[in-house]
Every structure is written in C-alpha cells, then in structure tokens.
Design goal:
Length: about 250
C-alpha cells in the first residue's frame, strides 16, 4: 500500500485523484486550502485547511507515513509549493509537481504581461474601458483605484465585500469554461479588455480563446517563481512517476 498526498485545488488534482481512486494499492488523500465555500466532490478522502507552514506539512507527512507527495496546486499558489518543497526534503518524502505549461500567444494576439494586479490597473490606462476580470478575490482590491472602468468580475464564490467602484457586475462560475460561452459573455457585456492569470490548461482557456476570436487584448499576471523540484505537465506523466515509485518501494520491501 502506498500513501499518497495530493495538494490540490485544481482541475488536474481532481482528475488525478479520480484516476488514483480506482487503484487498489494506493491510499490517496487530497488536501484543499478551504478557499471555496462549497468544494466540488472528490472520489478520495479530502482534508481541508492549512498545515501550519512547511514544518506543519513535514509533520503531517511523517505522522501519516506519506510515501509520495504530489503538488498539483495552481501555478500561482507559490507559498504552498515552496512549503511542499521544504517539507518533502525535511521529511524525506519524494515530491512531484504537476504543473500546467503556461499558455503561449499566437499570431495576432495582443497580450501584455504584468507583475501583479497593481500593474494590471496601470496597464488599463486612464480612459474608461469595459474590463473582464478573471482573478482570485484576493487580487481585486487594486482595481478600486481605477473607478473609471466598467468591470465584469467572475469568481467561484461571491466577492464580499464587493469592489468599491461605481460600475462593477459579478458573475459566478467554476471552470471548466467553454470558449463559445465565454465568447457570448464577452460580447454580451461589450468587454474590450481581459485581465487574467496565465493559468495554463484547458479548463480556463475559454476566455483566452474567446479574446483571440474577438480580437480583444489580454492583460496577464506573470507567473510567480516556483521551487525547482521534479515536475511533469500531464496526469499520465504523474502516473509514470508513481509507478516508478511503486516499483522502488517494492524493491526496498517497504
Ligand atoms: P498559497 O498562497 O500558495 O498558500 C497560502 C497558504 O494556504 C499555504 O501556506 C497553506 O497554509 C494553505 N494552502 C494552500 N494550498 C493548500 C492546499 N492544497 N492544502 C492545504 N493548505 C493549502 O495558496 P493560494 O494561492 O491562496 O491558493 C489556495 C488554493 O487554491 C490552492 O490549493 C490552489 O491550488 C487553489 N487555487 C489557487 C489559485 C490561485 O490563483 N492562486 C487559482 C485556483 C486554485 P499553511 O501554510 O498553513 O499550510
């Protein structure tokens, strides 16, 4: 039996957990930060809430006798990824990062990369625009400094308190988002610029594809630096790593 801890909060973590759930020799736990009010159903046991930093996570790995740690968190969740790297080293647990490659611009795309939400606000400029924001709720505050724009903000849970600007509308939604639906949304709201993260993957690419189709500019927050750990980009590759791990464990008689 192999104890696997997946640090999740992403579509890929859910998919990986679902596929591992069917494996008799695996005991999988999925860990969520607890950011969303109603997490989606997962087919494996879920634990919710922080570990208490890298030391807390290392203690968890030791206490639960975790054999393999998979960091399948979002590419912008830099703190937990750094903690995972430190904790895995401290506890002597092999770590794999499952990371989506960043989206790449195609010919004709008008993408501007910015450091953070504050810089995104500057990039919008002084002239009123109709802005679609697809960022986390924690990153919205800087947009209050630019009340001249119309905002359409999409989030999983309601933005509470709402952004303190005169013209903001909210749409709730949890990915995956289809390109056609996002194209309709952007057109219906007469959006002329998008602010988003370069999350990678298919689940939230709909808005980027829609922007491409409509010829809209996109302002993308730069990805944060992540720790240099062994990483793969697909669930299949994560399986290959786990299978290698199973073989090693058997050889060691663990
Ligand atoms: P973060 O800034 O990297 O982490 C902040 C703290 O939250 C961590 O130090 C840890 O607390 C706790 N935490 C984060 N992910 C956790 C997990 N999977 N299980 C247990 N504790 C976790 O994280 P974040 O950017 O706020 O993201 C939180 C969660 O939302 C992650 O699971 C991520 O995959 C998901 N998510 C994030 C984004 C994004 O844009 N950041 C987008 C979609 C989904 P302790 O130090 O107490 O252990």
């Amino acid at each position: 039996m192999q104890n696997i801890l997946i640090l999740g909060g992403t579509f890929e973590a859910r998919q990986l957990a679902a596929r591992l759930a069917g494996r008799p020799q695996c005991c999988v736990t999925l860990s969520l930060a607890g950011r969303t009010a109603a997490p989606t159903h997962h087919p494996v046991p879920v634990r919710i809430g922080g570990f208490g930093g890298a030391d807390g996570l290392a203690a968890y790995l030791r206490d639960r006798r975790i054999d393999r740690l998979i960091d399948a968190t979002h590419p912008y969740a830099a703190v937990i990824s750094a903690n995972a790297a430190r904790a895995a080293t401290a506890a002597g647990v092999p770590l794999l990062a499952l990371r989506r490659p960043a989206w790449q611009p195609a010919a004709g795309d008008c993408w501007t990369e910015v450091a953070d939400a504050m810089e995104a606000v500057s990039a919008l400029g002084p002239t009123p625009r109709r802005v679609f924001i697809a960022l986390g709720r924690k990153q919205l505050a800087p947009f209050a400094a630019a009340p001249q724009h119309h905002y359409l903000i999409r989030s999983v849970d309601p933005v509470d308190p709402p952004l303190s600007v005169p013209r903001a509308k909210y749409v709730l939604g949890r990915g995956p988002f289809a390109e056609a639906a996002d194209r309709d949304l952007l057109a219906a709201w007469h959006i002329d610029v998008i602010v988003a993260k370069n999350s990678g993957g298919a689940a939230t690419f709909g808005k980027i594809a829609a922007a491409r189709a409509l010829g809209l500019p996109v302002i993308l927050l730069r990805r944060p630096p992540l720790p240099p750990v062994a990483g793969v980009e697909t669930i299949e590759a994560a399986f290959a790593w786990l299978d290698h791990g199973v073989a090693l464990s058997t050889e060691r008689g663990v």
